[in-house]
Specification:
The protein is an alpha/beta fold. The protein is built from 21 helices and 21 strands. 45% of the residues are buried. The chain binds NADPH dihydro-nicotinamide-adenine-dinucleotide phosphate (NDP).
C-alpha cells in the first residue's frame, strides 16, 4: 500500500492479543436486562404518564407494530397502493422509533442525510445539513406520518403483550396493556433492531447513589435542556461506541469534570459535516434521491459506479477496502483477494491510528485511544470533535485496557483498584442483540398451531427473504436477519416495506385470506443465506468482541441470522422478481374464507 508502512506479523499478533484480553466466557450474558430493578433505565421520559384510553376490539386490514422508519415506510408504501385501513402501534408517545428514543446531545445520522432520511422527494424536503441532527430527523418522521395520514388510526403509548393467529377468524389478534384485542388481517413487525437498552452487569451497579441514566433515555430534567445543570457536576460515562462518540464532546463542554470509561476504542474518522447549499438543493432533478440512494448502496456494498454522489468517508473507505465484496474478482484468486483485503484494512487502520496521534496531545491518552482490530469489526465512527475532547483539562480518559469497569460503588466507579468519584453516571452501553425475540420485544408472536416465534427460531432464524416465516401466515417481519446487506439501514427498510406493501395490497385486492411461506421456500432461503456468509463468518471470528459477533462467541446460529450477502442490489431484485407475475412466489395462498 503506497505511503503506509507496517509490520504485518506484528499487527496480526497485536490484534489477536487485544482480542484475547477482551474475550469473556459469559459473552452476551455479561449484560443485564433493563427490567425489574433496572426498569427505570428503559422508561419513557417523553410520554404522558396519565394517558389512558378505552380498549379497542376493531378490525383493521394491516396492523404495523412500530412507528419508526420501518413502520412509517410500510404505512407510506401501503397508502401509495391505496390501502386505507392501517393502524400503527407503538409504545412511544409519538412516531420516530430510534429518533424518538435517542435524544442525547449531539445526536445526528452517521450516513449522509440525503440518502439516510427516507421519502425526501415524496415530501418535497431537503435536509438542512449533510448529516442532519436528531431533532430534524424526528420532525421528518412526524411529517411522514402527517403526509401519509398515518396518525389517523394510530395507537401510541400502547405496549403490545401478545400477537396471536386465530385460524378460524383468519386474523391476528393483538393484545396490549390497554386491554385491546385488535383484529388484523395482516401484521407488519417493524419494531426495531437496536431498540432495547442494555446495561453491563457490573458488580455493585445497583449500589450507586448518584444520578444515572442510559443515553437512549436522556434525562434533560437532570441535565437541563442546554446541559446547564451539569456545570458543577463530575460526570462519568461508560461506553465509547457510536453513541458516546457523538455525545461526549457536548457533555465535556458542559460539566465540571468528565470521566470517559473505555473498554475498546472506536475508529474515529473525519466527518466533514456542512450545511446544505441552497443552490444545489434547488437544482435537484426529479428522481434525485432514488438515484443517490442506489449510487450509495452500490458503492458501499462492493459495487462500482462511474460517479460517487455522496463522496464521504463511507464511500471512500469501501473504495479502498473492497471489503464488502463477497464475490470473486476476475483474474484474482480467493487467496490473493483476501490478502489484498487484509493489507488494505491494515492500511486504513494505520491511518485511523495516525489521526489519533495528530490530534490528541498527551501520548499516553493517544495510545489508549487507538483501536487494534479490523475496520469493520465494530461500527465505524466519524467525528470532528471527539478526539479533540481529550485535550481539554476537564476530561479524563479512564482506559480499562479491555477489561471493562471493575466495580461500581455508592459514590463512583472503580477501575484497576482506583475509585473515581462522580455525581452522575451515564450508560452509553448500547442495545440488546442476540437475545430471544420475546425478551427484546417484550411480547410473543404466536403463530399457527400455537407455536411461538421464539420456539420457531430456537435453533436459528428461519425466514423466506428475511421477511416471512412458515407457520406465521400474513405476517411480515422487517429486520436485518437474512436480509440484504447495507450500511444504510433505511434503504433496507424501504426495500422490505415496498415488498410487504405490494404483497399485502395484492392479497387484499385478490380476496386472499391466508398467505404463508412454504417450508421448501423458507429452507431454500436459509440455505442460501448460510452458504453466502462464509467469508464474513470467518472474519467475525477473528474480530474483537462486540455485538456484531455475539461478543466473540459467534456460532452457527449467529451465522444463520446474518445478512443475505449478494451483489449490492441483488436482494431488492430478488424480492421484485418474486412478485413480478402477480401472485408472490414461495407462498401457500388461500382465498375466500370468512372476512
Ligand atoms: P455499542 O454497543 O456500540 O457500544 C457500547 C459501548 O459500551 C462499547 O464501547 C462497549 O465496549 C461499552 N461497554 C459495555 N460494557 C462495558 C463495561 N463493562 N465496561 C466498560 N465499557 C463497556 O452501543 P452504541 O449505543 O454506541 O451504538 C449502538 C449502535 O447504534 C451503533 O453500532 C450504530 O449502529 C447505532 N448508532 C447509530 C448512530 C447514527 O448516527 N446513525 C449513532 C449512535 C448509534 P466494547 O466495545 O468493549 O464492547
Amino acid at each position: 500500500m503506497p505511503g503506509v508502512e507496517f509490520d504485518v506479523d506484528a499487527l496480526r499478533q497485536k490484534y489477536a492479543q487485544e482480542r484475547d484480553r477482551r474475550l469473556r466466557p459469559d459473552g452476551i450474558a455479561q449484560y443485564v436486562e433493563t427490567s425489574g430493578v433496572f426498569a427505570d433505565f428503559a422508561n419513557d421520559p417523553w410520554s404522558d404518564e396519565e394517558f389512558t384510553r378505552e380498549p379497542l376490539t376493531d378490525d383493521v386490514d394491516v396492523a404495523i407494530i412500530g412507528a419508526g422508519f420501518g413502520g412509517l415506510l410500510t404505512g407510506a408504501r401501503l397508502r401509495e397502493l391505496g390501502v386505507q385501513s392501517i393502524r400503527l402501534i407503538d409504545k412511544a408517545a409519538d412516531v420516530g422509533g430510534t429518533w424518538y428514543w435517542n435524544r442525547y446531545p449531539g445526536i445526528a445520522c452517521d450516513v449522509e442525510s440525503y440518502v439516510y432520511m427516507p421519502l425526501l422527494e415524496e415530501l418535497g424536503y431537503v435536509p438542512t445539513e449533510k448529516y442532519a441532527k436528531g431533532p430534524e430527523i424526528l420532525a421528518h418522521c412526524k411529517s411522514i406520518a402527517e403526509h401519509y395520514d398515518l396518525y389517523r388510526d394510530i395507537c401510541l403509548q400502547t405496549e403490545v403483550h401478545e400477537i396471536r393467529w386465530e385460524a378460524e377468524l383468519q386474523r391476528w389478534i393483538i393484545a396490549t396493556h390497554h386491554g385491546d384485542a385488535i383484529r388484523a388481517r395482516f401484521v407488519a413487525m417493524a419494531n426495531g433492531y437496536l431498540q432495547k437498552p442494555k446495561l453491563p452487569g457490573i458488580e455493585g451497579i445497583t449500589a450507586f447513589e448518584g444520578h444515572t441514566f442510559h443515553t437512549s433515555r436522556w434525562d434533560y430534567d437532570y441535565t437541563g435542556s442546554d446541559l446547564g445543570k451539569l456545570a458543577d457536576k463530575r460526570v462519568g460515562i461508560i461506553g465509547t461506541g457510536a453513541t458516546a462518540i457523538q455525545c461526549v464532546p457536548h457533555i465535556a463542554k458542559a460539566v465540571q469534570q468528565l470521566l470517559v470509561f473505555q473498554r475498546t476504542p472506536s475508529t474515529v474518522d473525519v466527518r466533514g459535516n456542512r450545511p446544505t447549499d441552497p443552490t444545489w438543493s434547488e437544482s435537484l432533478p426529479d428522481g434525485w434521491q432514488r438515484r443517490r440512494i442506489e449510487n450509495f448502496q452500490l458503492l458501499t456494498a462492493g459495487g462500482e459506479a462511474d460517479e460517487d454522489l455522496v463522496d464521504d468517508a463511507w464511500t471512500s473507505i469501501v473504495k479502498k477496502l473492497f471489503l464488502m465484496r463477497q464475490t470473486a474478482v476476475e483474474g484474482v484468486s480467493d487467496e490473493e483477494r483476501l490478502r489484498a483485503v487484509e493489507m488494505a484494512d491494515f492500511a486504513k487502520m494505520e491511518e485511523i491510528r495516525t489521526r489519533v496521534d495528530s490530534i490528541v496531545a498527551d501520548p499516553a491518552t493517544a495510545e489508549a485511544l487507538k483501536p487494534w482490530y479490523g475496520y469493520f469489526c465494530k461500527r465505524p465512527c466519524f467525528h470532528d470533535d471527539y478526539l479533540q475532547t481529550f485535550n481539554r483539562d476537564n476530561v479524563t480518559l479512564v482506559d480499562t485496557k479491555g477489561k471493562g469497569v471493575e466495580r461500581i460503588t455508592r459514590g463512583g466507579v472503580v477501575v484497576d483498584g482506583t475509585e473515581h468519584n462522580i455525581d452522575c453516571l451515564i450508560f452509553a452501553t448500547g442495545f440488546e442483540v442476540g437475545t430471544d425475540y420475546s425478551r427484546r420485544t417484550g411480547f410473543e408472536i404466536i403463530g399457527r398451531d400455537a407455536v411461538t416465534l421464539t420456539e420457531k427460531w430456537s435453533d436459528g432464524v428461519r425466514t423466506l427473504h428475511g421477511l416471512t416465516v412458515n407457520g406465521f401466515p400474513n405476517c411480515f417481519i422487517l429486520s436485518i436477519a437474512q436480509s440484504g446487506f447495507t450500511v444504510n439501514f433505511p434503504y433496507l427498510l424501504d426495500v422490505q416495506a415496498r415488498h410487504s406493501a405490494e404483497v399485502i395490497a395484492w392479497a387484499l385486492s385478490n380476496d386472499v385470506t391466508q398467505l404463508e411461506a412454504t417450508v421448501d421456500a423458507e429452507s431454500s432461503w436459509v440455505d442460501t443465506v448460510v452458504a453466502r456468509t462464509g467469508a464474513s463468518a470467518e472474519r467475525a471470528k477473528a474480530c474483537t468482541p462486540g455485538y456484531y459477533n455475539r461478543e466473540g462467541q459467534a456460532n452457527a446460529k449467529t451465522r444463520q441470522g446474518s445478512f443475505f450477502y449478494g451483489t449490492p442490489t441483488e436482494y431488492a431484485d430478488i424480492l421484485d422478481a418474486s412478485r413480478a407475475d402477480g401472485a408472490p412466489e414461495g407462498f401457500e395462498i388461500r382465498t375466500g374464507i370468512p372476512r
